[in-house]
Amino acid sequence: MSAMRYTYLGPEGTFTEAALRTLPEAATRELVPMVSVPAALDAVRNGEAAAALVPIENSVEGGVTATLDELASGEPLMIYREVLLPITFALLARPGTKLSDVKTVTGHPVAQPQVRNWLRSQLPDSVWESAASNADGARLVQEGRFDAAFAGEFAAATYGLEPLVTDIHDAENAETRFVLVGRPARPAAPTGADKTSIVIWQRDDHPGALLELLQEFAVRGVNLMLLQSRPTGAGIGNYCFAIDAEGHIADHRVGEALMGLKRICPKVRFLGSYPQAGVPPQEAHDLQARALRRGTSDAEFVAAAEWLARCQDGRA
User: Fold this and answer.
1) What was the pLDDT predicted at 290?
2) Average confidence score pLDDT of the chain
3) What's the CA gap between 197 and 205, in Å, rounded?
4) Which residues pair with 150 in a beta bridge?
């Protein structure tokens, strides 16, 4: 039954699977690995799965372009929650392999910038070739196509490999953000520590065009947490922008910012409002109170609207 099925970027043993298994509902769902991000999301679009967990941002490499592009195009989908997972790699190889035997290595393209310095110092003569995922790289090592793969240490048992080196990372505290994506529906109620994701398209390219878009957020006191340009495919210089903003679409300041963008952009795609990962519910209210600038609270927006109505009625 599709309502009980979640897809994820596979195969088994990926960091995406590890992130998915941190969700309480994962214990009661059928978890189905898919060969790519588009395949995982298409399963949701065609009704084969209720939701998909996919990577969207890495603290070292930035946005995961495959996910951003898929969410910006095709049949609309919506983000319902996010998961943050600390990332550290192990170098996995077939039993009996020594570090000096490693001449070819593989892993997901996003993994390479996170281990580049270690690779340069420890295996300077090795040749890197990217795999569809870190776990797929481990599978390719199992099949003998590469000497070693960078993956989570937990993937070793799945593919009959052994970790030659563990705890590999060029940047301390590296983490990847994953999002649980489903079909569009009413967003969950605000928690006080939320995030709203959208994709916007410019009407035309002119001096100050991006500034005009960003001012819709700035004048309402909405903080941006991510801004990334992506080519639209319509030619050099044509871009859309993936944006994560602090707050919930139900917050007046966020809702008005989105309305302002809708007025000046040819296309705005709402990707969801959902709780920020890592913020305990008891801290959410205090976090929101500290983030608000004077004049941007819901009460102040309501008071301003009431004042305008009195002016229009001759009661100011």
Assistant:
1) 60
2) 91
3) 23
4) 91
Percent of the chain with pLDDT over 90: 71
Looking at residue 287, its pLDDT comes to 58
Strand pairing partners for 229?
A: 241
Q: Are 61 and 175 in contact (CB under 8 A)?
A: no
Q: Are 164 and 105 in contact (CB under 8 A)?
A: no
Q: Residue 248, Cβ neighbours under 10 Å: how many? A: 24
DSSP-assigned beta bridge partners for residue 242: 199, 228
Q: How confident is the model at residue 200 (pLDDT cuts 50, 70, 90)?
A: very high
Radius of gyration of the chain (CA): 22
Provide CB contacts within 8 A for 299, sequence distance 6+: none
pLDDT score of 257 more than 80: yes
pTM for the predicted model, two decimal places: 0.85
Which pLDDT score is estimated for 207? 86
What is the pLDDT, as a whole number, of residue 223?
A: 93
Tell the burial category of 310 from Cβ atoms under 10 Å away from its Cβ (0-12, 13-18, 19+). exposed
On whether the CB atoms of residues 247 and 191 are closer than 8 A, the answer is no
Residue 61: the pLDDT is 82
What is the number of residues in the chain? 316
Dihedral in degrees, nearest 10, Cα atoms 64, 66, 68, 70 = -160
Q: Which residues pair with 194 in a beta bridge?
A: 275
Write out the DSSP string of 233-302: SSSTT-EEEEEEEES-TTSHHHHHHHHHHHHH-SEEEEEEEEEPTT--HHHHHHHHHHHPPTT-SHHHHH
DSSP 157-189: TTTT-EEEEEEE-SSTT-EEEEEEEES--PPPP
Q: Where are the alpha helices (DSSP H) in 29-163?
A: 37-45, 65-72, 112-122, 134-142
- Rounded to 5 degrees, what angle do the CA atoms 146, 39, 140 make? 10
Percent of the chain at pLDDT exceeding 70: 96
